[in-house]
Design a protein that fits this description.
39% strand, three-stranded antiparallel β-sheet, 11 strands, five-stranded antiparallel β-sheet
Amino acid sequence: MKKILWLVLLLTSGTTLWAQQVWTDKRRLLPDQLRNIPTGINIFHSPTPVWPELNTDTVNYPGRYIWKHLTTVSTQLGQLQVIAAGSYIWWKDKGWTANIKLDAKDFEELFNCPAGQLKPNRTYTFLKNYRHEDGLYAGDAIWFVLAKAKNGKLYKGIALVETEGELKPKH
């Protein structure tokens, strides 16, 4: 449990980065890693947009504000083996930038997906896919999952999550 909590803290703080040249063709919308791969995985964020709230659990989630949402993954194809997952964040002056990188083991722990195997018509959920910061700012992120079928064919799933930069207006 401590390992999972540490991983969640690391991931949600946005400190897990890899190669920065991830979006080389500015004429295309998606980062390079996600192009030319057929879609076969469904990803869903709830809620989106995500509004920040004052953080009451700074022991587990450092920062004054927290954006709470969950992320689900499923497929209708046959069994797929997760090989990578993570996110890219959008910066107005840079475009898509690598943010979070998960391997099959990380995915297994965070999404409660035994051995990183996506089975058809089952849903795997990252319940506390939280962002936490000291300051308020809006941002967009693309979450992705890459997985292989038994025949070696690679599939992707992508979903945009919007995080807002002000406390939710009271209606």
